[in-house]
Specification:
CATH superfamily of the largest domain: P-loop containing nucleotide triphosphate hydrolases
Oligomer: single chain
Number of domains: 4
CATH topology of the largest domain: Rossmann fold
Structural class: alpha/beta
Largest sheet: 5 strands, parallel
CATH architecture of the largest domain: 3-Layer(aba) Sandwich
CATH class of the largest domain: Alpha Beta
Length: 516
């Protein structure tokens, strides 16, 4: 089934966004009537806590007293609400309202366990459909992103969402809608690097950045975004280490000229409104539905945050490691929904095939070397000066005004691990030995550069080998996969030699014992 049909299948379920019987019991009714009193132990403000016995506590806002915060505590599959948590060493209390940044974050008001994951996903998609205009398949990606923000600590890579489109396509409206659904969402029209580090390290929010192209510190912000997509990476500033890992949504008029950052994004192209009547993010019905969804997703978070169940990626092992981690981050929260899983696989595969994964200069160098291997199959070397001249011609043919120098071409070849070069009287030459030819073919298949690039040549043994490798359903295996396969084959040969050596020693020992 095509992803478009799946989307419409979810959207056509005309269930109301908010059921009449879905009201939650007031939090004050389940909080102990008597306030828990401290026994004199030290108090510490926390917004999230996990205990040694598996207890999880997350911060919520008291729906009966705005500005007051409580803990939703999960212990042995039972959710309770407490004003403070007593531990053997200290007493944990919620942060005060005057805490910096806290009043700008959105929090759920309870943990609603009445909705299943399938119902949560359907309601998120329906709310997005009611408020913003997207391509049908992009509703699946946006819904997966929203749910992933509630389990971001559990994911191998932080989900990044890029909303791309010219002015007037609804990017700001989309950010306002996502701020109602994502965990601890905060919208920033401008943000400094210091505020970025402090906010993400203290609260781990879903940061939604509007019109980042207008920011004066754009370069520094893009650098922080690149560093904040992986677990365990810190930003060192002013003698402190800040954790910058977290989910992000950025609205771009156009994607930045940064392939490394672009590869971290799930890109959604905003669609001009077709005249379909859309609800406003400030509509009371939308606000009530979003509030109930936030409460349901908090319960989903508490129940699944410590779940050690891994994700079987299946047929996406051919993806580059970064794309594979991003797909796994979107997939893990909704792994039990087979329809969503199949649709997400198709969407990620389609977006990955259209992704420009190499800068234009690197792609030109790779294409020129790849064509030279097939135009002159018997050549043993390629002069760097000729390679530079041909690469500049290829760039000129596609309208690229900047040109390459021989030094820059050498740096690009080094980044491709094509380091076998020899200095001659006419300059440096690239040695085209068998290892270099294999490397070039694997790079071409992995990155699929965007210039004049032939997929394969009939008389090339390397092209035939790669096509045979991809005949089982994976069109182009990644370089990492093939290198892993080679390493596994080497280990198997080494183990077989060790076994043969051991069996020979055993036979020899047996013969010696029999002769005695």
């Amino acid at each position: 089934m095509r992803p478009r049909n799946r989307v419409r299948g979810y959207i056509r379920r005309r269930r109301p966004l908010l059921s009449r019987n879905s009201s939650l019991a007031p939090v004050a009714a389940v909080v102990n009537a008597e306030e828990q009193k401290s026994d004199g132990s030290a108090q510490r403000e926390v917004d999230f806590w996990t205990g040694p016995d598996g207890t999880i506590a997350d911060l919520i806002e008291n729906q009966d007293k705005p500005g007051d915060y409580l803990f939703a505590v999960l212990r042995k599959n039972n959710i309770q609400y407490k004003r403070q948590i007593a531990t053997p060493d200290e007493t944990l209390i919620p942060p005060s309202r005057q805490t910096e940044f806290l009043r700008h974050l959105t929090f759920p008001s309870a943990a609603d366990t009445s909705l299943s994951l399938k119902e949560i996903f359907a309601f998120v998609m329906k709310l997005l459909y009611e408020t913003i205009e997207l391509e049908p398949a992009d509703y699946i990606l946006a819904s997966c992103f929203v749910i992933a923000t509630w389990l971001v600590e559990r994911l191998p890579a932080a989900p990044y969402l890029a909303l791309v489109g010219p002015p007037g396509t609804g990017k700001t409206t989309a950010l306002r809608v996502l701020s109602l659904l994502c965990r601890r969402a905060v919208i920033a029209a401008d943000i400094s690097s210091a505020a970025f580090c402090q906010l993400t390290d203290r609260w781990n929010p879903t940061l939604l950045i509007d019109e980042s192209a207008s920011m004066q510190n754009k370069c520094e912000l893009l650098h922080l975004l690149r560093a904040g997509s992986a677990q365990g990476i810190f930003s060192l500033r002013g003698g402190r280490a800040y954790k910058t890992f977290g989910a992000r949504v950025v609205a771009f008029p156009e994607l930045p000229n940064d392939p490394a950052l672009n590869s971290r994004f799930v890109v959604i192209s905003m669609k001009c409104c077709t005249g379909r009547k859309l609800s406003s993010p400030t509509d009371p019905t939308i606000l009530r539905a979003a509030k109930r969804l936030a409460n349901a997703m908090l319960a989903f978070r508490l129940m699944n945050l410590t779940n050690p169940e891994p994700v079987e990626l299946g047929e996406v092992d051919y993806l580059p490691p970064r794309s594979r981690d991003l797909y796994q981050s979107l997939l893990w929260p909704v792994r039990k929904l087979k329809e969503v899983r199949d649709a997400l696989f198709s969407l990620v595969k389609a977006k990955e095939s259209s992704r420009e994964s190499l800068p234009r200069h690197s792609a030109a160098v790779l294409d020129v070397v790849y064509h030279a291997l097939h135009t002159f199959p018997g050549a043993s070397s390629y002069a760097i000066s000729d390679l530079t001249r041909n690469a500049n011609k290829a760039l000129c043919n596609v309208g690229e005004l900047s040109s390459l120098s021989e030094r820059k071409v050498g740096s690009i070849l080094t980044s491709f691990n094509l380091t076998s070069r020899t200095r001659t009287n006419a300059g440096y030459v690239l040695n085209l030995d068998r290892q270099a030819r294999e490397r070039v073919h694997l790079l071409a298949r992995t990155y699929k550069s965007n210039l004049n690039f032939a997929l394969s040549y009939k008389n090339c043994e390397f092209c035939k080998a790669l096509n045979n490798l991809g005949s089982s359903g994976v069109a182009f295996p990644s370089l990492l996969d093939i290198e892993k396969a080679k390493a596994a084959a080497r280990r198997e040969r080494r183990a077989r030699r060790e076994r043969e050596k051991g069996s020979k020693l055993q036979r020899r020992g047996k013969q010696e014992r029999q002769s005695k």
